[in-house]
């Protein structure tokens, strides 16, 4: 005798396998982006226009003098903050989608993990284009000495991480107004403690943990390593250094140990040492930055599971 009604506890919880869910959700998300191109173009235009504006404000960054050092520091911190603040547009976008997500997952239409992965897969190419747009414009016009590929990778990683953070906040707050407030406030706090305004040694001990939690710390350090981690020789008037963010200059051990820098007042390693940057490779900073992005995505997934609960009605 054929069993027509299978017991409920033996039925599959979801109608489709995980891979198919990711494929279908990715296709739907891609269609939404195509139908509403302003989701992509708004940030693309902002980064392109601001890249041109920054290129017109910061000139002659190719020069090897003391004035250029502080101007490079100012340029790179603004570049990082521009990338982070430009991601705030994701707040209302997800809050609108959240109600659809809760309704669909309450009937086990798909898994929360499928939604998290599909949204990341679809937006990765757009993040890559946006990061390259800003990096190429500023690198070409300002004639930066940094490596363009690494410059692009740092900005690309920053967009991935900040998008994950904004999505996490959007999943926790009740409205997009609250979401904007939380994202702007926390990003400003990360900006303050990233090592530009206050070097880590100048931050009070009870606030120093913010320097390491700040997602802005790592792309800023990576950009400076990409720019100054070489044998560049800087000369000029010492008075040109005092008003800027570099502050008190500390000579690195590489400068004193090597005999080829005897005629150099400062080398790139001195700038990094004075800024409190001790990492030898930008990939450490990029790895930590992406690790924060992964953590934000995992927390985002946990929050979505809490909302949906995957209860079939």
Short description:
With 313 residues, this protein is mainly alpha-helical.
Quick tags:
single chain; 313 residues; mainly alpha; two-stranded antiparallel sheet; 12 helices; elongated; disordered N terminus
Strand order of the largest sheet: 1-2
Cα radius of gyration in angstroms: 23 Å
Total helical segments? 12
User: Residue share in helices?
Assistant: 55-70%
Mean pLDDT: 83
Shape field: elongated
Would you write up a description of this structure?
The longest helix is centred in the middle third of the chain and has 31 residues, at 112-142. Mean pLDDT is 83; it is low at 1-8. The protein has 313 residues and is mainly α. Helices cover 65% and strands 1% of the residues. Helix 6 (148-172) packs parallel to helix 12. It starts with 17 loop residues before the first helix and ends in a 5-residue tail after the last helix. The protein contains 12 helices and 2 strands, in the order αααααααααβαβαα. The chain has helices spanning 18-35, 38-57, 66-85, 90-105, 112-142, 148-172, 176-192, 209-213, 217-228, 253-257, 268-274, 282-308, and strands at 233-234, 266-267. The relative contact order is 0.14.
């Amino acid at each position: 005798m054929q069993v027509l009604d299978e017991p409920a506890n033996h039925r599959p919880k979801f109608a489709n396998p995980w891979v198919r869910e990711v494929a279908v959700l990715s296709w739907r998300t891609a269609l939404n982006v195509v139908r509403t191109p302003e989701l992509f173009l708004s940030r693309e235009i902002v980064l392109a226009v601001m890249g041109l504006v920054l290129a017109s404000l910061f000139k002659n960054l190719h020069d090897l003098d003391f004035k250029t050092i502080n101007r490079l520091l100012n340029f790179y911190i603004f570049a990082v903050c521009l990338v982070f603040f430009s991601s705030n547009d994701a707040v209302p976008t997800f809050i609108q989608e959240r109600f659809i997500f809760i309704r669909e997952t309450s009937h086990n239409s798909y898994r929360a993990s499928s939604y998290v992965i599909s949204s990341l897969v679809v937006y990765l190419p757009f993040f890559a284009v946006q990061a390259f747009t800003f990096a190429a414009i500023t690198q070409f016009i300002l004639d930066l000495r940094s490596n363009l590929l690494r410059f692009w990778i740092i900005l690309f990683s920053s967009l991935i991480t900040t998008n994950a953070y904004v999505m996490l906040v959007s999943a926790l707050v009740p409205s997009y107004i609250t979401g904007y407030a939380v994202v702007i406030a926390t990003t400003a706090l990360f900006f303050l403690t990233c090592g530009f305004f206050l070097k880590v040694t100048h931050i009070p001990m009870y606030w120093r943990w913010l320097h390491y939690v700040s997602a802005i710390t790592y792309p800023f350090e990576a950009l400076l390593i990409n720019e100054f981690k070489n044998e560049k020789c800087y000369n000029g008037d010492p008075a040109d250094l005092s008003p800027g963010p570099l502050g008190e200059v500390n000579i690195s051990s590489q400068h004193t140990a090597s005999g080829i820098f005897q005629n150099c007042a400062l080398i790139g390693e001195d700038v990094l040492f004075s800024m409190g940057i001790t990492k030898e490779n930008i990939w450490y900073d990029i790895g930590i930055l992406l690790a924060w992005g992964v953590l934000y995505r995992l927390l985002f997934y946990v929050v979505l599971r809490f909302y949906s609960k995957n209860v079939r009605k």
